[in-house]
Specification:
Blueprint (H helix, E strand, L loop, with lengths): L1 E5 L9 H4 L2 E6 L1 H7 L6 E4 L3 H13 L3 E6 L9 H8 L4 E4 L4 H9 L7 E4 L5 H10 L2 E5 L6 H11 L4 E6 L8 E5 L1 H5 L7 E7 L39 H11 L6 E5 L5 H8 L3 E6 L2 H13 L5 E4 L15 E4 L6 H11 L3 E6 L5 H10 L3 E7 L2 E6 L3 E6 L3 E7 L2 H4 L5
Parallel strand pairs: 1-4, 1-5, 2-3, 2-4, 6-7, 11-12, 11-14, 12-13, 14-15
Antiparallel strand pairs: 7-10, 8-9, 8-10, 15-19, 16-19, 17-18
Helix pairs in contact: 6-7, 12-13
Amino acid sequence: MITVVGTGTGAAPPERELLAGAGLVVGGRRHLEAAGVPEGAERVVLGPLAPALDVVERHLDKGRRVVVLASGDPGFFGIVRALAERFGPERLDVRPGVSSVATAFARLALPWDDAVVVSAHGRELRTAVNVCRAHPKVAVLTGPGAGPAELGAALARTSPDRRLVVASSLGDPDRERVERVTPGEAAARDWGTAVSVVLCLDPARALGAVRTLAGPERAPASGWALEEGAFAHRDSMITKFEVRALALARLGPRTGDLVWDVGAGSGAVAVECARLGAAVVAVEKTADGAGRVRANADAHGVDVTVVHGTAPEALTALGEDPDAVFVGGGGRELPAIVTACARRARRTVVVAMAALDRVPGAREALTAAGFSCDGVLLQSSRLAPLPGDVTRLAAANPVFLLWGVRPPARTEGVAQ
């Protein structure tokens, strides 16, 4: 058996009986120094994981007991996954400790059943940034090149109203620090190597409603492709729910994604993408339209960054490349707008058009950018009442929906 001991946030030594009879003890240097490893037991200081697992396998083959020491809760973004994949869960005896995430929220006296937890350790920082932009309560597990300074620098540009809580050396009575800073303040500091976890909070929504399921909502409770009446709009200038349903299916917004809604109008697509967990930027050329997008986002309790500007010029200042783009307006500039979006989109561009004349130019812009292109003409008729308690079908204006998908081989080549 492999006994996996979570030492909690203070690296407290495990109980002596857990180490008794171990032929191998694996852990970080500070864990091994604090543990009192029995004489005769081999020690392996954790660095690269593969060589350590090879040593574990050799000891198991000889019938020797192995103890692995890990920080916090080893089943929470920890070594239990790698051990279970290599040796099988049935060979593990896991003794969990308190995770750094649980400890950090405890220091703030905040519940965290509604928090999103994202790891930036050895992973792209952009995913953590987008999660922080889209959700009011996030815990970020940091790593080299993805610490409080880098996270703060990214959020200072897009979400300066967020507050970061940097928890360092949690559990160490002499060195523990829990500091509240703005993204800009975090970006300006050297935080060293003792950071345990960073919390990103929307102060107005940090204490959320009572939950029955932990974690972020995977899908809005009221569904998606909402009725037009769920949004403020001008003169029916809104993407109808039939079109919105297919557009959302092709955009595929999810937690960790960044979506642009270009020519946002009422912002219905932007709001729906945000309700599905994505970080969203809405670009709208009219001042009253930009205000309407903000009002709709507020009404639905989601975060949407609104840019008042005209595409394609306004797109150059947006910074990070999006995963998906919805283009809902453009007029004669539509081919140039689609071209600009296709240059930046990592995965998908979806274009909605009412005018037949716009379709060839938009399609050519997508294919010229190397996207595979497909589309449909959507024609729908809704039930409408007639006098005499009877019903007719009322035809809605037809809409062309095109979508371009970047070939998988090229996805990794897009600028980060």
